[in-house]
Amino acid sequence: MSDTKDLRVTVAIDFGTTFSGFAYANNINPDITVHDSWFGLNNSRKIIPKTNTVIQYGSGWKLVNWGFPALAQDPGSRRKKKHVNTDCKTVELFKLHLADIPDYQKPGLPYGLDYRKAIRDFLAEMKPLIQETLNRRWPPAIKLSQVRFVFSVPAEWKPHIIGILQDCIYDAGYLEKRHSNHNLEFTTEPEAAALYCMKKSGEYKLDVGDTFLIVDCGGGTVDLTMRTLVEGDCISEDTERTGDLCGSTYVDKNFRAFLEKKLGKSALMNLQNKHYEQYQYMIHEFFCPYIKFLFNGDQAEFKIIELDIEKWCPALIDYVSQEIKEEMEEEDWLIEILFQDVFEMFHPVVENILTLINNQLNSSRKKCSAMFMVGGFAESPYLIKMIEERFSGRVPLIAVPQNPITAILRGAVMYGLNKKAVKHRKLTMNYGVEVFPKWIQDVDPKARKTENGRIAKFSCLAKRGRIVTPDEVCSDVYYPVYPDQTAILFKVFATSKPNQRFCDKSDKTGMEEVGKLRIKLPDIHLGIDRPVEFGLKFGELLITATARNKTNGESYSAEFNYVSAFEAATSCN
Length: 573
Hints:
27% strand, 6-stranded mixed β-sheet, 5309_t:CDS:1, ATPase_NBD, 573 residues
């Protein structure tokens, strides 16, 4: 069986909402390289740090393209082609289906396509490129089992969501086993960014004891974490990491709402459903470069922008009402976009980000010495301007560090090379196990009393807000319910809500089952006097469960895969 001694290379993968990429380093000589040569159109290469998180399917869900080549071409050039594959379906933003939001708020997918398949297929297409890159750099061939993979995930993801991604990673062919892999790690996106910024702290004259805020502004999520520099090139978590769905794609969404007011909601719906490639082309080739990337909120500098429907999305013309068509023909199918229009696209999204920052600053007792903006949206002139206006009086240094787009990738590699750089983490959920004590009259609900006079309860091992070290175990001692019991099944649950007594899964309790661990209980002649110490270790996002039979010293441990039971590794002491 492989172990960490066999690992030769660390590869970080930033699977983003709008853009994805990978970076790598040799474990012996850890110079970090960000892969920057991606497939373009017609087998060309584009020198960019990430490719688009887009996938294109043909008939029968056969994969046609992924990344940048899956983006649509100029609608004009498409009309000139005699043979256009109308069966092709281009899919993006599928990562948002992992977000903990109602289904109606998630972006639509083509009928019959499961978001897990899209994630799995995208990651599977990236895998050969990673292998080719590593083998060219360090021949002979490097096996995937010799690669430590580090995936960065949004701060607000709950354990079961990470479990879904873990299954997709396995199905995409990165891992030898579905569970308990020695070469898979997870870190949060703001934590990875914090590690990267820690290495840049000297440029900003930050010292040990200084606290800084990371604001990771991506395409889908904006994630924040407050960290403190500690001795030995390490960081500790000062507040609960937070995040929300207010990334740059929500500005795109507001642009669509603007067009719906001009051309009708049904017209935009038909465009997206029947000509998604044109809708996508308009967003990526018109809205982003001409509006989103340039807007700085200065009305005096702003010049009216014209959107030429015939040029950017001619298919729209077929779906507008007769009344709108007549009006647009008089305007030569040109739509004027004014300052107030663009301001309204940005304002609600930016206000959400400002609220997140304010809440983070208020939640820390320490003075924030610096704020670092990373991620693609961090380069928005308007966002930076608003953050500086709102917080320059509270935070002396607000900066966009070098390479903000790849900060997470670089930091995730750093985490894989040295996990001890994260000195402390702050728990964002309450963790515990299901136990079965005796039901107590006038204390416990009568409806919950079992036939054998017991009651199922939640026994909390670690409370939300607790600061833990990587090697710290949060534990308690438990006993079998029955004297002839030959095993104990520990079911681990987590919830962000306080003071929960029971393990019922509901919106009210917020309970999610994290995993299970079964241990053997020999020596039945001792009856119920067979104590077992059960604990959880939170040094990594993959939680480690441990159990020790205090009677015979037999120990069990395993990493939770978050969604199902696993086999426990056993060692006798």
